[in-house]
Amino acid sequence: ASEVAVTKTVSLQSEDRECIFSDMLQRAEPHSGTANELRGMVPENSTVRCNRRCFGLWEKKPDGGMHPVKQGCWTHVGNEQECHSDHCQVTATASLTLNDTDYHFCCCSRDLCNANFTEPPPTAETPPLRREETALIALVTVAIAAVAVVVLFLGYRMMKGKQKHSLSALDVMEAANTNTAVDLDHLKLLELIGRGRYGSVFRGCLNERCVAVKVFSSANRQNYANERSIYCVPLLQQHDNIARFLGADERLASDGRPEFLILMEFYPHGCLSRYLSLHTVDWSTCCRMTHGVTRGLAFLHTELYRGDQYKAAVAHRDVTSRNVLVRADLSCVLADFGLSMRLTGSLPCRPGDDETVAISEVGTVRYMAPEVLGGALNLRDCESALKQVDVYALGLLYWESFRRCSYLFPGEAVPEYQLAFQAELGNHPSFEEMQILVAREKFRPRFPESWKENSLALRSLKETMEDCWDQDAEARLTAQCAEQRLFELSLLSTHTAVHNHRNLSQGLWPPPSGSAPSLIKDLQVGVVKNLQGDGHPAAVVKMTTSGAEGPERNRNSINHERQQAQVQVQSLRLCPCCPPGGALPSVCQPLTEEDLETQKLDPKEVDKNLRGSSDENLMERSQKQFSSSNLLYGHILQTAQVLFRYYQLLYSHILQTAQLGGVGGVETTLPLPKLQNLPQRPTSLHLLHKTNETVSASSRLKLGKLKSNHRQVETGVAKMNTVAVATAAEPRQVTAVTINTSTRVGGGDPAVSRVHSKMAVASSYSAGAPALVTNSLIGRGRTNPAGPQLEDEDKMEAGEDQRINLLNASPDEHEPLLRREQPPAESHLHLLQSRDGNMVSGRGSNSNNNNNRTAWASGEERVRAFDPQTPQNRRGRPCSLDLSASCTSSDDAPLTDDGGLSASGEKIKRRVKTPYTVKKWRPASWVVSTDTALDPDFDFGIPKINQSKSSMAVFLVGGGATATATSDPDGITCF
Ligand SMILES: Nc1ncnc2c1ncn2[C@@H]1O[C@H](COP(=O)(O)OP(=O)(O)OP(=O)(O)O)[C@@H](O)[C@H]1O
After folding, report:
1. Which residues make up the binding site for ATP (predicted)?
2. ipTM reported for the complex surpasses 0.95
3. Which of 66, 169, 213, 782 has its CA 20 to 30 A from that of 150?
4. Probe ligand 1: pick from 202, 205, 220, 271, max atoms within 8 Å of CB?
5. At what angle do helices 709-717 and 697-706 cross, to 10 degrees?
């Protein structure tokens, strides 16, 4: 036991420590501490004997010095591992701040180790932060994170942009069928050939090849990038009427700044305005030029899929005659896509945002559409709106072009070239001036004085221009429709179309021959030329039904396929309105041989024309139904079929008339040609004349400014509607039919036969069934809706200053371009998804026909784009100049082979009610009598029926097979 006690004592003694003792707080004696008491230890010289551990507490005085507060034995029972150090080391956790005084605590386990303290090592834990510091740190952290995110995002964007550019470059190579071998180092710039708003154009030489090089300064980089990216739109470069792109590059200019180059094919004639300022053009050239531009634009506007390639619809947004280039063969291409914009399924503009401004306020002021000038662009349907803007400018381009068409100014000087509105506003119209003139006053370029001639070509041409620059954007033609119109115009023989009129006006027709004429000319119906001739002489149906008297009558003709023309009338020379054996009325003149000649077309040539106007490049590749010519051909064929049937009936009627009227030498019964004899490829379309206008220029002005319904009425009825009625018998006589005009019918006394009525009747002598009801027009007046159209050439400033500067300066060069200095609208709009969630092929466009999408696989969209009856077409305005064909809906079955007399009432209704323009439709009535005797209630053969002004009716008089209404006048059936 004593040994154990000794061991314990030794052990206790070994654990004892001598610690410094002080207590500045209580001034206590060292021995007064509880622990010391417990252990019974006695302090020695401010030291105290402790059990193993000492401690010290120091405070930091304001002077910075550390003073002990308390030192002694550390008796805290805690972690046994604590305080085992030989040095009294202050730890972060043992430091605290009280009342702004820092206290340092330490403990240790060596004798006198608490006499002083040691600072914690620098790696020791940092003291806890204050709240403000923490908040600050958090804030800074968040800010840094945000900046990092932004930087990352921008970096991503830049990377994407670079990727895009490099992709574009690849596309460029692909599209231009070039490769990296195109070495711009070998490019030589030879001469400056033009200067635009965004760059200068040089003729250059690259590897022996003549090229055009458009050089953009760095300020116009965006324009350059946009133009390049549009050229790279898949499939675009395959189109014949889009300028050929050869490559793009950037390099350092002599001043050290970057400049950007676009290489293009060199077009020796330069731009269209330049060419037209130097040359006049003939009809076919002019048609070909304008048709080419239109074809290019139509293609640009069309959304296409071919295999895995997708071509977005693109709006050009700067269609001007300076942005059309002329090839050596005088065909034209669309160029300058610096402001162009991809249009896709989604709506690109949102009202109110900056992009919207970029979308709407671009272009050349002179060619800006009224809705752009007036800030009324339909931003809810940008795709359509932007296409309509293009078509407006296209109309102006037509005007500029055809004013230089020598064939439209026979016997007089062709006026100097003028830009649109140049006569009114000079070379540099301001935006405000254009706003007033075009948007507010609805003014449009005037048609030259000599264009008032109501020839077929001129009327169709003017109508097409007007339909392009219509104030109502939605009523404008689509580019596809315009293309079709131009194609049809190009098929017209101007010589006939223009000169016939004049010949007739001047009474140049030869006197009637004694024999029956082989020519029957329907002065109201128009012209149909068929392609497939067989060498037989052509026949022309000529029939006077226009009420307009005198030399200013409309003079159209129907010229059928020669096979048909041969239909047993080769020896017949008969003017249907001539009294038998009587003097030939002045209006009833047979066609001259010259006219006959002009009606004949070389089938090969026309075939070539047809082929040439198709999108054969694409078609051949895809073998899909893209080709417009196919569709056109469909239209043409349809037209020909309808007209041919009309011709058959007319012909029959004429023969019957001749028979009844005692014209000798004519067989009384001639079988109608069958439908299967129809021409396979008609060459031209039926185009209607109007009666000559008698309104004065001033009244035109007023009418034009009012953009009245007047024109709408006329366009509504100015086309032929052909209706085949009943089935049984062969038609014998058909009379027709004018509105607001006087008409000669039959072969009797002109005084009797003249019908002066709002409604004209064709009394039909028939074996029981009326055969044909024809409404051929025709009111008076003008067609130009927008403004005074007669150009007073005297007022036109002539002279050199009117000419555009051929090389370096455009009259518009310094025109303000109403575009903010921001990137021209990011043209890459969402591809497939429309805002309303529809996919490209599905989005409707509130009846707009401007959203043309072509599915290469089916061609269906393309078909719809051409079909005037589809809801996609604006306001029912037909593409074709031929009402009877173009307005026939696709589900209108063609007339049957048995003579075409089986059309149902429904079909009749549909066909008759197919308006030229829906909104502009005005009533017309057709009455067909099935009685051989005129009803006494008829006034000059016309029943007195109150014609509704808001509806149209077709009446079958006396014994018609179909009766659908009970309230009609007796004996008259209203369909
Ligand atoms: N590929 C080309 N071949 C021949 N001449 C060209 C070619 N490209 C342009 N030019 C000529 O250079 C002129 C300037 O063309 P550019 O496209 O730079 O300007 P612009 O179309 O006149 O004006 P903007 O660019 O402002 O619309 C054209 O008017 C044309 O005469």
Report:
1. 214
2. yes
3. 169
4. 271
5. 100
